[in-house]
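Sequence in, structure out. Go.
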Amino acid sequence: MKITDIRNKDYVSIDNTLFLAVISDDHEQDMVKCWLRYLRTENGMKKLTTQEASRFMTLNYPEFLFHSTYADNELHGVPLNKIDKVYSARTFPQILKTNINLDNKQADALDIINLFIQQNVEKNNIGITGSLLINAQSEQSDIDLLIYGREHFFKTRDIIRQLMKNGLVHPLDKDDWRKAYQRRDCSLDFESYLFHEKRKFNKFKYHKTKVDISMIPDRKQQVNDRHSYKKSGLMTIKAIISGDQYAFDNPARYYLDHEQIQEVVVYTATYVGQAKKNEKIEASGVVEVAGEKRRLVVGTSREATAEYIKLIK
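Output:
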């Protein structure tokens, strides 16, 4: 396997003990850019917070810490020869179909996949990531679906909207949204968070399970940004969105009509799909500079404390 075969949202494992989520298609220094998410213990699989993962890697696996010159940030990175298994999010649904002893969560995931296929979503464009991918799911787990290709993703959002109308899947209720809000621990108040989320149509409920869908664009659809950025302090701006074609990418990008900042780049799922072209936003984040280019980054940590995007009504 080549390093370029490992895609964003796949998982890799080390010693069948550390399970790291791949966080980018663009790898650096021959390292797969990733972040530790699960640890196998004598009591089973443990999901780690960002802080727990950082501490654990620093103390026990410092060789897998590296400084990303692109992001000007400390990340986890694993060379190919240290990976014992790659868990491919794109091929996992086909593996799931061959399993005759499915638990409730796996059965729900397979039902949803088949429902999308019935609505003419190509099966090869559907993936699964998160706990299901590495068999770490519980009855409380969400289902994290991926749609490969920008046009397929936007088609799927329209399908979700229609499935909700037909009662085949259901919108989240306020308690579901409240739980999601508490997990995200974002810098918006709850009502603002709810307003922005409800119009994205990338979350729904099937039976008792919350389902999230995310997009993995085809490589030819991705932004080619090879600058090496340096951080340059905090900033809060107000601006009109001039381009939103990459609003659901990872990272998400919003092009701006602004004197100093050309774009907002988002590395946390909370603010993916947050705003549309011609809408006015307030955004707070970290300024990054590369030559004449200045961008505002939201999501310099998973929780993105004090970093946000919100509409100005």
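Check: The CA atoms of residues 244 and 276 lie 6 Å apart. DSSP finds six helices and 17 strands in the chain.
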